Each structure stands twice: as structure tokens, then as C-alpha cells.
């Protein structure tokens, strides 16, 4: 199968050119034998293509294969992770100075984009799933109500899947948006593998961001900005605003090669991983699908009466999960994990003795009131104070424990005693320092 960018760089490297440009290693090995495919690490030289250029080249050919394979009109390679894509995507759809409907559970990059673009958020809530102890999917009806109550909002941004693997109904939400003249952006950072498992829901969105490096066998920082109804030139425009003008050709070539792999042997291996993951769910207490709850089939969210202790026990046995919280341990399973790896995980679980139902976890408290806009909160002078002494102060950063994986306090909101009590109950370290807006206090006696 074709891998046009990787193949062209490999062919150029095989000519052993005299390289008197960037990068400084000029295609030779790095000091100390550090492993790096230096031969493919080029710059724009007339033959390698230009990530943000107009002329068709191998990069655009590789991007087109991704777009066609995933069912989108355009694709831009990102070498700054999904953070670059979230910033570019919100700039592309929402512009500056307006209002957006934002999933309260968005990654901090979305909150930073609000500040950089001076956007006013109307937050979309996530229901609390008491039985599972995690935040649930975005409700399309809630999106409809939000757009009806805020007709000036023309951009909706949600996250799907979540860290715990919860999927929202993207086609239904997209239909709601279209009916009300709004466009939908999905932060699918944790879902780059799903299209290779037959999931097509993301195609309904106008813009989708995916991190190849999170769930595919791809290097760190590799990600994709995908769009329908928008030309590549617009993706390039905003991708170049938030990305380096010297993108790594090694990372871009890796994106090309991993797509080729996933369309063949990698996809088959991923399907086997999903089958093995389902066996683990049946053997161990884990988050499972039910009516009204759709999950990433490769994400293994284990339940535990003490998730922090289970996470520590696994690490002691050389098994490093992605996340541990009070009642769960999250494992990212990919096509790199087969029978041997998952058997090792099972042995560690057996030795820990800590698998079992999660404790009853309380729902998050009501959101605090906002005192500053996201932009004001980001650029305000800051003061670091112990969280336990912060009641009445205005947060200059997210405070987002897992679960729920949703900010209990967002930048610009007033920290209240009830939120500190909830954080203590969830096992959050209230002795840690929090960044607050300097000189702003709203009186503890009133909170």
C-alpha cells in the first residue's frame, strides 16, 4: 500500500545527499548512539514538500489518504499534538470574541483557546453516572436547549471519547447543530483508533481532532486535524498560526506510515486487542456498555474499592496504567498489546487483590459563579496559595480531579467552600498550591 511521504523521504535519504540545511545533524547519527531516524529528518528543500504550502506534494498526498480513509474532506498533519488542533479548530470555526457551547469536560487546551480567542463559553453539562462513578455522555437534547437559549452560539465543541472511554452520540449532536445553524467540533484525541475498528460516528462532525500518538503506534506529538466542508487551505492557515514553521518530517512520515499499517495488519491486530479486552471485562470488575452508555471497545476502565492503591500495586509489578483515581484504573489498550501483555496485566491484578466494585462516589457540586472571563483569568497577575486556604479566591487555572474528569472549578470562577469539601471527599490533595488571580477575593464568610 502507498505511504507517499515516507517513501519519498526514504528515497531522498537513500541518495545520500550532502545536507547543508536544517536539522543540524545533516542526516547522521546523533551523539552517544541515541536512536533516531536521522536520515528522514529533513526540512523544506524543494523535494520534501511543505506542510503549509499550496503546491500538491507528498505531504498533501499522505494527508489525503488519511482524509479519504476516515471519511473526511480534508486532513492536516499536526506535530504539536491535539493541543495544536484544538486551538486551530476553535479559531477556524468560532473566530475571536464570540460565544461557544463548550463541553465542561474539555481538555485544558480548549480552555486556553477560549482565553487566546477571547471566547465566552456556555458550558454543556455531563450527567453523573452514579452506578459507574464517572461522567456520562453529552446529551443531544441538552445541546438543543443550549442552542435555543443562546441563538448567537454557532460553534459547539465536545470531547468524545472521554478518558474513561465514554462515547457521545456525535451524529445526533451534529444533526442538532445543523438544524440550528451551528457547527460541531469534536476533540477526539483519544479516538484515533476507532475508525479502524469500524466506528464512523466522527464523520458527522465539521471538525475533529485526533491524537495518533495516544492510541495508535505513532510517536509523541503526532495528531490530525480533520474537517468536512472546509478546504485544506483553511486548516493550513490556522494550523500554521498555532504550529511551528519547522515541523518534524520524521513525525509526519510516521503519520503516513502508521495509516498504511492500520489499513492492513494493524487493524487486524487492533480487532484482536478488542476481543481480548472484552474477555478481561468479563473476568474483572470493569466499566461496561449498557443501554444509554456507549464505550470505546479498546479502553479498559477497571473498577476497584481503592483505585489509587490498585494503581500503585500494578506499578510495583511493572504495569503502568494511564490513570488511577479513587475508584478506577484506566488502561489504554492498543494494537501493541496482545495475549502476552494482557496475561501479564491479569497476573498483576490477581496479585493485587484490589479488583472489585468501586465505592459510591458523590456527584460533582454545582458549578461556581464566574468572576473573570477565561481571557482575564489567563492573563491576570497570579498568586499561588494552598488550595485549602483558597475559599473566596478566583481560580486562574482548572481544578479538575478524576473522576469526574470535568473541572470542578474553571479558570475565572470563584472557589467556594462546598467545592473544597467535594475535592477532599474525592481524595484530592487540598494541601497542594493553586494559581489564583492576585488581589481578588470575595469574602469567605459569604461562601
Task: Describe the overall structure.
By secondary structure, the protein is α/β, with parallel strands linked by helices. The chain has helices at 4-14, 58-70, 81-94, 108-117, 140-149, 170-179, 212-215, 232-242, 249-283, 307-316, 339-352, 374-379, 417-425; strands at 74-78, 99-103, 120-124, 128-129, 134-135, 155-159, 166-167, 183-187, 207-211, 223-227, 294-295, 299-303, 323-324, 328-332, 382-386, 393-395, 433-441. β4 (128-129) and β5 (134-135) form a beta hairpin. It contains 13 helices and 17 strands. The radius of gyration is 23 Å and the shape is globular. α5 (140-149) runs parallel beside α6 (170-179). The longest helix has 35 residues, at 249-283. A 7-stranded mixed beta sheet has the order 1-10-9-8-6-2-3, with helices on both faces.
Main sheet, how many strands, which sense, barrel? Answer: 7 strands, mixed
Number of H/I helices: 13
Mean pLDDT: 94
Strand line-up of the largest beta sheet = 1-10-9-8-6-2-3
Strand and helix order: HHEHEHEEEHEEHEEHEHHEEHEEHHEEHE
Unreliably modeled segments:
none
Rg: 23 Å
* Strands, count: 17
Strand content: 15-25%
User: N- to C-terminal separation?
Assistant: 63 Å
Amino acid at each position: 500500500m502507498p505511504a507517499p511521504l515516507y517513501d519519498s523521504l526514504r528515497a531522498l535519504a537513500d541518495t545520500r545527499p550532502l545536507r547543508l540545511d536544517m536539522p543540524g545533524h545533516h542526516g547522521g547519527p546523533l551523539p552517544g548512539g541515541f536512536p533516531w531516524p536521522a536520515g528522514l529528518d529533513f526540512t523544506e528543500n524543494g523535494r520534501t514538500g511543505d506542510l503549509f504550502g499550496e503546491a500538491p506534494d507528498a505531504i498533501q498526498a499522505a494527508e489525503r489518504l488519511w482524509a479519504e480513509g476516515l471519511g473526511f474532506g480534508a486532513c492536516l498533519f499536526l506535530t504539536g499534538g491535539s493541543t495544536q488542533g484544538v486551538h486551530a479548530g476553535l479559531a477556524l470555526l468560532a473566530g475571536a470574541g464570540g460565544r461557544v457551547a463548550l463541553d465542561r469536560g474539555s481538555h485544558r487546551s480548549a480552555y486556553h483557546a477560549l482565553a487566546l480567542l477571547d471566547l465566552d463559553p456556555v458550558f454543556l453539562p455531563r450527567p453523573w453516572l452514579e452506578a459507574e462513578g464517572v461522567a456520562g455522555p453529552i446529551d443531544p437534547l441538552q445541546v438543543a436547549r443550549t442552542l435555543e437559549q443562546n441563538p448567537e452560539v454557532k460553534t459547539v465543541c465536545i470531547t468524545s471519547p472521554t478518558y474513561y472511554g465514554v462515547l457521545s452520540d456525535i451524529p445526533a449532536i451534529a444533526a442538532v447543530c445543523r438544524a440550528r445553524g451551528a457547527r460541531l467540533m469534536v476533540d477526539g484525541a483519544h479516538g484515533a483508533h476507532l475508525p479502524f475498528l469500524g466506528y464512523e460516528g466522527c464523520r458527522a462532525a465539521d471538525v475533529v481532532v485526533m491524537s495518533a500518538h495516544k492510541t495508535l503506534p505513532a510517536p509523541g506529538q503526532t495528531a490530525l486535524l480533520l474537517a468536512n466542508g472546509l478546504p485544506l487551505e483553511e486548516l493550513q492557515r490556522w494550523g500554521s498560526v498555532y504550529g511551528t514553521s519547522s515541523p518534524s518530517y520524521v513525525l509526519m512520515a510516521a503519520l503516513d506510515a502508521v495509516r498504511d499499517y492500520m489499513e492492513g495488519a494493524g487493524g487486524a491486530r487492533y480487532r484482536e486487542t478488542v476481543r481480548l479486552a472484552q474477555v478481561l471485562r468479563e473476568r474483572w470488575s470493569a466499566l461496561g456498555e449498557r443501554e444509554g452508555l456507549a464505550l470505546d471497545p479498546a479502553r479498559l476502565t477497571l473498577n476497584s474499592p481503592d483505585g489509587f492503591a490498585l494503581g500503585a500495586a500494578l506499578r510495583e509489578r511493572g504495569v503502568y496504567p494511564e490513570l488511577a483515581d479513587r475508584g478506577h484504573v484506566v488502561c489504554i489498550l492498543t494494537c501493541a498489546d496482545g495475549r502476552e501483555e494482557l496475561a501479564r496485566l491479569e497476573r498483576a491484578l490477581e496479585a493485587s487483590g484490589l479488583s472489585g466494585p468501586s465505592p459510591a462516589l458523590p456527584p460533582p457540586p454545582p458549578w461556581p459563579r464566574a468572576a473573570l472571563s477565561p481571557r482575564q483569568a489567563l492573563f491576570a497577575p497570579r498568586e499561588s496559595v494552598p488550595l485549602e486556604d483558597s475559599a473566596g479566591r478566583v481560580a486562574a487555572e482548572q481544578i479538575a480531579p478524576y473522576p469526574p474528569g470535568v473541572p470542578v472549578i474553571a479558570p475565572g470562577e470563584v472557589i467556594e467552600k462546598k467545592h473544597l469539601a467535594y475535592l477532599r471527599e474525592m481524595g484530592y490533595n487540598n494541601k497542594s498550591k493553586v494559581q489564583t488571580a492576585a488581589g481578588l477575593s470575595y469574602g469567605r464568610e459569604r461562601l
